[in-house]
Structures
1.
Amino acid sequence: MKLYVVGLGPGDQADMTVRALGALAESELIVGYEGYIRLIQDRFPGKQFLSTPMRQEVDRCRTALQEAASGKTVSMVCSGDAGIYGMAGLLYQLAEEYPPVWIQVIPGITAACSGAALLGAPLANDFVTISLSDLLTPWETIERRLRAAAAGDFCLAIYNPASHGRPDTLQRACDILLETYSPKTPAGVVQNVGRDGEGYLVMTLEELREFPADMLTTAFVGNSTTQIIAGRMVTPRGYQRA
Amino acid sequence: MKLYVVGLGPGDQADMTVRALGALAESELIVGYEGYIRLIQDRFPGKQFLSTPMRQEVDRCRTALQEAASGKTVSMVCSGDAGIYGMAGLLYQLAEEYPPVWIQVIPGITAACSGAALLGAPLANDFVTISLSDLLTPWETIERRLRAAAAGDFCLAIYNPASHGRPDTLQRACDILLETYSPKTPAGVVQNVGRDGEGYLVMTLEELREFPADMLTTAFVGNSTTQIIAGRMVTPRGYQRA
């Protein structure tokens, strides 16, 4: 009857919350994308796991809801946070067809936070979180949002900057930001946070435009106040002004 | 020599990560705003604690850096995340004066994530995080950013919506959003997340305008696609379209 939607954080179990670990321990069945199940499987021996490939989000959510409706305690796992580009929204949309299921969302460390922590403090003031995946949002909407972010002098955390099927979306996004932002605006990328090959790179917006991002990259762009201090990307907040 | 900047999450120790708990256990000295020290003090008996009142951020950071420079392992604690409206930025700015200190930022669950988890899934698509505190950002910049957020049809997580000294900032922010967004746009508030008196309320943008927010409130505004489903605020992401 109970369905936890659990944010796993970036990938390392050390970045999971106590509450997330407790929900998984309490669950009889853990459902998720196969890449995320792999991250936790060995910590919970004896649990039932059910993994599905990418892009089968609706099926995955229906399975979790059906199993919970049949009386099981189920966890649906998401990387990062459960709500930010996670499965919580879709589960609430579908849950009306499975009335007895009680949903609890358990937040996790989203890539904006885990990536920023590696880069320094790029999001220490107002920022925008935007995904460049045009599979789920029309590209015209993405362009409009990038222009709006620049008009507001926001810092940006850019999710899903590029993939095999759309190798140039980060470049196109940078071109839009460069209509407003200086080419020397501090920028950065993180890759494989909390996993083998973890790394970060501080650069400029014009360099970010040339960066070969992949699905495990999160990109960051500063605003007009962002500085590079000792190799880190830092957006001041004005404490020294107050 | 080591300074951890630790995000405590919303307030309940269950929402801390394993890594954050480990950093505090490893530290000889834990520094922070007195309200945050109170949240963790009883879990770490025998530690040295140093708390300062609000608005003394620069002094608090200098103390932490000095103690770390003198050879101690120190944690600076922040509520929510360590970087998002946290102390990580200011510490990097000041750290150049304390060269031997090695800073590590340990992310935590920020209010956008913990609040969204209570309300449903209001931030399941692109969103803006904005603070209404005009102590640290000029109000004209805040207004410009609110207009930009509305121009991009972004969802919003609004930090520091009001305080004793500025009781009307949430109202003024809603008025700006209402220039573009429908008065019936789903909105919500959370209060005292992870603490006594935790609660959430789903409403409309015109109702949010009248809401008596305080310092322990985080406000959320949906975009043109956000729905209220079974009393929760849900922004679809397009999985059913893909």
2.
Amino acid sequence: MSARIVIDAMGGDNSPSAEVGGALRAAREIGVSVLLAGDERIIRNEIDRRGRAPAGVEIIPADGAIGMKDPPSAILKEKSGCSMAVAADAVRDGYADALVSAGNTGALFTVASLKVRRLPGIRRAALGAIVPLENPVLIVDSGANTDATPELLQLFAYMGSLYCSLVMGVEKPRVALINNGAESTKGTPLYSAAHSLLAADGRINFIGNAEGRDVPSGFCDVVVCDGFTGNILLKTIEGMGLFMNRSLKNIFHANALTLFAGLLTRSKTNALKKQVDHREHGGAPFLGLAKPVVKAHGSSDEKSIFTAIRQAKTFHESGLISKLGEEFTD
Amino acid sequence: MSARIVIDAMGGDNSPSAEVGGALRAAREIGVSVLLAGDERIIRNEIDRRGRAPAGVEIIPADGAIGMKDPPSAILKEKSGCSMAVAADAVRDGYADALVSAGNTGALFTVASLKVRRLPGIRRAALGAIVPLENPVLIVDSGANTDATPELLQLFAYMGSLYCSLVMGVEKPRVALINNGAESTKGTPLYSAAHSLLAADGRINFIGNAEGRDVPSGFCDVVVCDGFTGNILLKTIEGMGLFMNRSLKNIFHANALTLFAGLLTRSKTNALKKQVDHREHGGAPFLGLAKPVVKAHGSSDEKSIFTAIRQAKTFHESGLISKLGEEFTD
């Protein structure tokens, strides 16, 4: 049976057009059933104006959407009937296999933890983020847990390593611990203790500490952080990508000759611009939940939503969750 | 009387050639006296092979150098007579006004804290780092204190703000606190408590939290961090700069047409390459010590050493240390 992916159709900056477009493409091209949670009339119009819909497209009616600036807890109160909440209900009730949303990250973490729920024995879910620099690097945790313990960092390392191998297809992923130096004793007490745990963990291919400079250089496939540090790492990479794209534009827009130079290098500079554009960076997977939940970027377009749905499908079919479920018990 | 700057002539990757060249240029162009600490014969040869030395150049003999991989504590034991230690002695003894070194950062922090000493009432010295992106941003602390308290972050903010205005010449510097979100309650308990202290501190122009993405965007002039987070922020910016320079090279070296495009944009791309090249980023000032100590990058060339000496001179003449000394007492 084909995977059934529920999409929060109202949560992103380009909702519901991006969600509907991406979902229809996924139904057509990768054989998934897509359930679009949101305002029935608006979604129906979006589907209709695209011509004949493929098979395997459903609408799950919902009431409104949670905003990017709403407090995450609103999803449990005044926004408990919104598209994101209803999408989470569909996963909780077994009606969908996986959830994709471009909405409020904190609200998604809250509602997914409560409704999709963590696997038994997993104490915290983590948010992974993938940055495609010299190689794709999975940052885990990238922002869900600002308080961490050495044992949680070890859990994040193991879940991240499994995701990297089973979903991203990297053989024997190189797992590193973010730190302020290469030596094993470096960092805060949290990080030096985590280093010892990771070094002793035979399930992962731990290659030691990664300094900030190593992350964009192809040094590792997974970088393990507490959510505070991971968020700053991720956002700094994004900010430098924006800086780089502004700088490239300034170089080529200086005069007629540089515009001509821009034409000569266009395909390569466009590829680079995409590589460092966080809006192109695929979805961020939640790790440790009982079903796949993928956070697409808030500014996702149709293509990003399609990519996130494809990622949720791969995640669902990867066997990662059943493997985690076998290893952890209450 | 002209400022007397002592230079650890043996500690960097390009020692002593870079140090001697940079020091001679400083003596010639900006009217400082330079004291070169290191192996007398080698330094003398370096001076002689550059022709007639300007006035105001002295050698302070020292025995060996501390290596980049030596533990910082070696500076107090088997390396206690090395060029960096002897340079710190010269400042301690009042023979020099300021110290510049391209050597081992941890050893410099250790020896400067013990010999140059902190100002009375200042509980910790911090290491500032300047990254010239959309605007020059001072990151403080960039690595000296991995353990911090809200009060220390407040101290770093105040010292950083003073440095930015008095040495970097920025009027009313915009001071931000690194964090994982814009809201005042964001972050770890350390950061939410620091936010309250900074918001209530009338001595600084606190503009709120900076996310990683804001740092390269011109959002602030000073960004306040604990040393662990600041090191990761700084190194990630450096690593993205290296990534960017590799990417630019790949774009222009693809074929004859792109090489031609490279010629057309050469001056602008070279300027950008320098902007993101951490080796070009001037020296990192220690803040809170009784005399200026500036850490030049390990891979400093002659020009970087000259720049760091000029920075130490400006720091010395800025009145920053006497102002701090008046405000803090034991």
3.
Amino acid sequence: MAFGVETLDQPGVLASVTRVIYEHGANITYVGMTERGGDSVRLYFEVESAADEGALEAAITSLPQVVALQREPSFEKVFGKRVIVLGGGAQVSAVVMGAVNEADRHNIRGERISVDTIPLIGEEHIAEAVRATARLPRVACLVLAGSLMGGDITEAVVEVRRKGILVVSLKMAGSVADVADLVVGDPLQAGVMAVMLVASTAKLDIERIRGRSF
Amino acid sequence: MAFGVETLDQPGVLASVTRVIYEHGANITYVGMTERGGDSVRLYFEVESAADEGALEAAITSLPQVVALQREPSFEKVFGKRVIVLGGGAQVSAVVMGAVNEADRHNIRGERISVDTIPLIGEEHIAEAVRATARLPRVACLVLAGSLMGGDITEAVVEVRRKGILVVSLKMAGSVADVADLVVGDPLQAGVMAVMLVASTAKLDIERIRGRSF
């Protein structure tokens, strides 16, 4: 269940709404806040396991700071699983072409796979971004697209793999390729394979190819 | 200020932490939840205007359900402003090449611009995704990359523009191009221009070209 709540811009609004959601037995899985302009704020919630969604809606709407509540489609439904591509501009743009074209083929059959990217330089910045992907919602696979990645980036890859994120690496210098789930030489193919690994409508199974290099 | 909180997986944990943040005078701008496995949960918060960040940290850490708290770099710092590219696979993959290459040139100079995409078909799905971009954090510009977009997609574009998101459209059939901030014929150029419009290190000013077609 996902909904937007327009509220007055007063301190403690989020605490009040969160309290009501808790009292209705629901688990909050995501909260965002947009439009902090003027004297109203727009909160966006995704919650699970509400016993009575209608009662929860009514209880939130009856809070004095709440102006309006509107059901929305969840980010999972709209944007689905995410493949994240990080690295050098030249390689990222080649990987993402393959990934977007492959995601198109699955989304046409009813899936939702999105492909998100950021071109970055420097071991510190890339390692930081790798670690941050584990805090983003809906991330299924990370593609490392560069010519040289090692050191702390390798540590970060080990950490995010432990948190359940698949990691595909281009064939490149440095130790990242040694710790990835899969190594692919051609960037377009790397993008396609990354999407196939997370797509329910594809047959590529990481358990059958883990540790291999193509 | 951004931090992760590892907590026991008990109902009301989020309500408790949110309450403490409120009591310390801070505004929550983002909350995410990851790793709902086993009996621990990882919450991620971004908060503004905490009077005393050390005291807030200590108060959260002292909650009985809290196992650990760790400072993290914010998503704004790591992934920065977002350019979102929606539409057909062929066009999205061409736009994103231009956008990623241009983002690379700005990120090398210290900015953080990320380029996020999803290939989709159908008026209803695309309109839903356009509207959802206004609920995503950090979105600065939306690029509509297709051959035919109109109807409810056009309504959705008008709505998100009103919420402060810049909209670039490819030259295409349908009414979306009529309501965009900017229309660009070449997809690679559309991606480059979209990134230039949001980059602080670029000189392209939407106020000087709004409504034009290139």
4.
Amino acid sequence: MKIEKIEPMDIERESFRIITEELKDRAIDPEQAPIVKRVIHTSADFDYADTLYFSENAVKLALDALRSGALIVTDTQMALAGINKRAASKLGCETVCFMADEDVAKRARDEGVTRARVSMDKAKERGDNVIFAIGNAPTALIRLREHIDAGYRPKLIIGVPVGFVNVVASKELIIESGVPCIVARGRKGGSNIAACIMNALLYMLDETRGAAK
Amino acid sequence: MKIEKIEPMDIERESFRIITEELKDRAIDPEQAPIVKRVIHTSADFDYADTLYFSENAVKLALDALRSGALIVTDTQMALAGINKRAASKLGCETVCFMADEDVAKRARDEGVTRARVSMDKAKERGDNVIFAIGNAPTALIRLREHIDAGYRPKLIIGVPVGFVNVVASKELIIESGVPCIVARGRKGGSNIAACIMNALLYMLDETRGAAK
């Protein structure tokens, strides 16, 4: 097996070319394609071409929120680490994760609930101009749905936890919530996928980036 | 679809029970099983039961290195964020990523190579008692193989980059290198998988953790 000679700058472009080629018989909404392809780029898993669900106008609404400097909230330090902070801060978007906060840990212990659940409560205090990038905890999505049922209206929920317990059902709760969302149906997802979807959205607004699409 | 009531503490145990059940007809080496299962736990992707390659005694050699306080080097901030630093530091293992270092960025620019490649050079200066957790950059693996061919002998290489360009071939270079390794053959992998394999190894040595296996 041979190593191809390729310039660092060209690796991403060539990867997207291969992905586009392998997807070629699939009908993918052009607005959604940069996200679907970037998720496949991050996972090498073409299942996402089938499982990624976009609520109506999700991409447009997400871009509007980013342009207005929405707060980006993750449920893991890993997702936080994976989001391109330079691209976010150019738009005036702050990126935060409350999972390691002492007050969150304490309340979770006291109440016997997950820190992810308490993190969502803390995020909600920051208002409605929030995009959630949830790649790990079904309990985060379950809590968000409770808040939505009580009137909360965040700008977008990226709902892509991975796993085996309450993962599939928690994602459906978000799809049925009426709030704009991008969800990976089924068991698959992860913090890397959450960060990747967030970055795909950010790159759509970053003119300095020869955005691979 | 219903949300199951389950205590936060029990979610991981129940997830591993489901994974074990779904794997039940597969023969998995008992020493490797905690790693294979944790990778499936992180990805919900049973393909890894087929694609994870372990060199002879890789797990035993990795645990020996961790007990001796090996340096853990990643090729992304995301993998670094995903590694359980508390478990690592209990063993005296430092965890580092050189990708954002200014000297690395400068050399990469000057030489027209990837920062991942330069990071590997920087890690090598720290000696042989190193475990590499590489979840992103084929160029990191290619560079490590060059160093190995010149006599470098790190303790373990976790070789799980994801992607479409040189990914498959770079992993085979590591498998054929003769250095202890755990590799996800094929296109799949990722920073989350690198961190997850590292954590599975750390948890094998963490007696305070009722390690889900």
